[in-house]
Write a structure and sequence with these properties.
Helix content: over 70%
Distance between the termini: 58 Å
Order of helices and strands: HHHHHHHHHHHHH
Strand content: under 5%
């Protein structure tokens, strides 16, 4: 019997991967990023600075533009403080407690990321409109109007950005080793002391990351705000709505100038959040090691 005909040869050479395969994938990905992100950003930067930095600054410091930018920043800051606190508490409850409807509530938390922002505006109008029961009661009892004012902006941003803090904190809470908590409890530490000294420190970076993402998201919100706050210059006009108004007024330079400022702020916040996420992963890996 000829063994050479029955035993497969082991000297066959394996085919080397094609050298252009990796480069091809990278080239396609980078080309797509360039077309979809980099080129539009460069175009808006060129358009906003075509008459020089002095004119760009003048466009930003016009009374209506400056008020819109300030309104955007302080309403986003107020929203961020509230959502940071409530988002952290919500994540803690979702991880540490069991209760009826928990799965449904966990799904509802992500709902603001899926529905159109215009729907958020419509919901708030139905809830707080001057012709509705709650809106009319607030106006009659306290002479307090929510719609077409900064409170409406804050409420819309609270709804839309709530998932960011919860989803930043929740995975870290799930991975926390509760040995230190049990040890502190056996030594007589109370629930608040354990929460403040043992649970919060490892959550600091995720909390800050979620807060930065919330703030960055709030900078560019348009759909819900244009419904609940309107387009009232020097009253309830935010930066994104201001850009829309300038485009309608055919003031492309003013729209581009404000867009550059908004992109710069959002980009800085996203880079900071990305840095904190990397630090959080490094810290977690060191603790596991």
């Amino acid at each position: 019997m000829n063994l050479s005909t029955t035993i497969p040869s082991t000297n066959k050479k394996t085919r080397a991967p094609l050298p252009w395969g990796g480069w091809g994938v990278r080239s396609v990905a980078l080309a797509y990023l360039a077309v979809m992100l980099v080129i539009p950003l460069l175009v808006i930067l060129r358009d906003g600075t075509r008459e020089g930095l002095a004119e760009l600054w003048r466009q930003i410091t016009l009374p209506a533009a400056w008020h819109a930018l300030q309104l955007t920043l302080w309403t986003a800051a107020v929203m961020t403080v509230i959502n940071t606190i409530m988002g952290t508490l919500t994540a803690f409850v979702m991880v540490r407690y069991d209760f009826p409807g928990k799965r449904i509530l966990n799904g509802i938390i992500d709902l603001p990321l899926a529905i159109p922002t215009l729907v958020t505006g419509v919901m708030l109008v139905i809830l707080f409109g001057p012709q509705e029961a709650l809106g009319a009661w607030l106006k009659e009892q306290f002479d307090f109007s929510i719609l077409f004012a900064p409170p409406a902006i804050i409420l819309a941003l609270l709804f839309l950005t709530f998932p960011f803090v919860v989803r930043s904190v929740q995975p870290v809470l799930l991975e926390l080793d509760r040995t230190q908590e049990h040890a502190a409890a056996t030594l007589g530490a109370g629930g608040w002391t354990i929460f403040r000294r043992i649970i919060i420190p490892p959550l600091t970076l995720p909390i800050v990351t979620g807060a930065l993402l919330s703030f960055a998201r709030a900078i560019g919100e348009f759909g819900s705000i244009v419904i609940v706050a309107g387009n009232i210059p020097l009253v309830s006009q935010t930066a994104a709505v201001y850009v829309f108004g300038e485009v309608e007024s055919e003031n492309r330079l003013g729209a581009s100038a404000m867009s550059i400022v908004m992109v710069a702020i959002a980009f800085s916040l996203m880079m900071s959040a990305d840095y904190l996420r990397k630090r959080s992963r490094v810290s977690s890996s060191k603790e596991i090691a």
